[in-house]
Amino acid sequence: MNKLFVTVFYSGCVKKAPGTVGSFVALILGLGILYVLPHSTLASLAFAITVIGSFEINKYQKATGVHDPKEVVIDEVAGMWLGMSMVPFGLVEGILTFIFFRIYDIWKPSLIGKIDQKMKNGFGVMLDDLLAGVLAGVSVLLILKAKVFLGL
After folding, report:
1. End-to-end Cα separation, the chain, in angstroms
2. Could you count the other beta carbons within 10 Å of the beta carbon of residue 102?
3. CB 104, CB 112: distance < 8 Å
4. Taking 80 as the threshold, does the pLDDT of residue 116 lie above it?
5. Contact predicate 129/102, CB 8 Å
6. What average pLDDT does range 72-78 have in this prediction?
7. Residue 131 and residue 143: Cα distance in Å, rounded?
8. pLDDT band per the 50, 70, 90 thresholds, residue 13
9. What is this structure's pTM?
10. pLDDT digit string (tens) for 81-109?
11. I want to staple 132 with a disulfide (CB 3.0 to 4.6 A). Which of 51, 65, 104, 109 is the partner?
12. What is the pLDDT of residue 61?
């Protein structure tokens, strides 16, 4: 059950780009949730997944002996959902959030990279993705504001 959860129904077990696959699964699930429920629900689910995921990742890391195993993608779900909860509902906004999230999650600028390097527990695995999600959400909001400002 632990592996099912941390790999998001084994979507993280693909050989190539498991983080991207997990983020894409998060995008699809998040759009479905936002279609029927408010943004605050998605933010609350991201928080709940973070709390539960931190403990479950600790268990999985202990069982595998690997810090932040590639197949663990529940952190991508929490980060994506946090970013998506910050922006208006829409396919374009969701795709932009996905793109920015992947950029920040792979690049790991500033504090994100430090957290990834220093915090070796489940919460650290979750936290760097949450920060990537916040940056992704802010980036999309800035693009939307610039679009309005420029009259596009």
Report:
1. 48
2. 19
3. yes
4. no
5. no
6. 98
7. 18
8. very high
9. 0.94
10. 999 999 999 999 999 999 999 999 999 88
11. 104
12. 95
What is the C-alpha separation between 64 and 128, in angstroms, rounded?
A: 21
Q: Could you give the count of Cα atoms lying within 13 Å of 9 in the half-sphere of its Cβ?
A: 6
Q: What tokens were used for 99?
A: 């793109």
Q: Is 59 exposed, middle or buried (0-12, 13-18, 19+ CB in 10 A)?
A: middle
Using CA atoms, how far residue 141 sits from 40, 88, 126, 136, in Å, is 17, 9, 23, 9
- The secondary structure of the chain in percent helix, strand, coil, rounded to multiples of 5, reads 80, 0, 20
CA–CA distance, 6 with 85 (Å, rounded to integer): 21
For residue 47, what are its two tokens? 């928080």
Question: How many residues does this entry show for the chain?
Answer: 152
Which residues are within 8 A (CB) of 115 and not within 5 positions of it... i.e. 6 or more apart?
Answer: 124, 127, 128, 131
User: Looking at this protein, which amino acid is placed at residue 108?
Assistant: K
Q: Is the confidence at residue 113, as pLDDT, over 90?
A: no
Quick: pLDDT tens for 36-60: 999 999 999 999 999 999 999 999 9
- Amino acid identity at 140: V
